[in-house]
Amino acid sequence: MKIVRYQTTGPASWGIVEDGVVFATEGAPFVDLRSTGERVGALDEVTLRAPVTPRTVMCVGRNYSSHAAEFGNAVPDEPLLFLKPPAAVVGPGEDVVLPRLSARLDPEAELVLVIGKRARSVAAADAWDVIGGYTCGNDVTARDIQKSDGQWTRGKGFDTFCPVGPWVETEFDPTDVGVSCTVDGERRQDGRTKDLIFPIPFLIEYITRFTTLEPGDIILSGTPEGVRPVEPGNTVTVEVEGLGALSNRIVAEGAGS
């Protein structure tokens, strides 16, 4: 099942996509969402928004050894976690803003896990039971600020620095799929989830040992090698094999204002 948030007129609503058509829903997203049978329109007749509204945006740094190596970093002994503010989340087609404070913006393609039920102290063997679906994500990073600050909150946390979408797929095997990033059609990142240092069940257990995750919260699982900077005017496309593609344009802060 593909879950979307869409907008026609008025506020965004939750929907389900079947054969390229969006249907209205009832119930709670990632818990008991179901179609009402009311046809909203084709995908190209609605505006897709971020298909999640998370309370917690958990991210995993350096979870591919190749990515750690390209920046001269050691592979961590335990998952290297950080948070993004929920205000960083944007949807497909929305602009990513290069802030005036930064001179280097890096996109990072990632598989995103969407939590489907309240999760606290979940054993790795039970991890799949608390995942409600999967989508594409972009861990946008102001690399110069990340390095100068020493900790990652500002460099990873600007508004628009967490594109997610285009939908959440509830029936999906994430254990060995491609994760790629292209910039204006140029392939830059091309990894596979089988190469994650800390696999998904381990991450769920590790994270829920210290914090509670609620339905709709998300985990960005890490990015493969090939990270390079972008500039205003570029279009970045993150693709997860079997899930779809997420595209966002880079704009300079204040452009057009």
UniProtKB/TrEMBL annotation:
Keyword set, alphabetical order: Hydrolase, Metal-binding
Ranges where the Fumarylacetoacetase-like C-terminal domain occurs: 56-251
InterPro entries: Fumarylacetoacetase-like_C, Fumarylacetoacetase_C_sf, Rv2993c-like_N
Top EC group: hydrolase
Domain of life assignment: Bacteria
Any Pfam family hit: Rv2993c-like_N
Recorded GO MF terms: hydrolase activity
Limits of the Rv2993c-like N-terminal domain: 1-51
EC number: 3.7.-.-
Gene3D superfamilies listed in its UniProt record: FAH (2.30.30.370), Fumarylacetoacetase-like, C-terminal domain (3.90.850.10)
Protein name: Fumarylacetoacetate hydrolase family protein
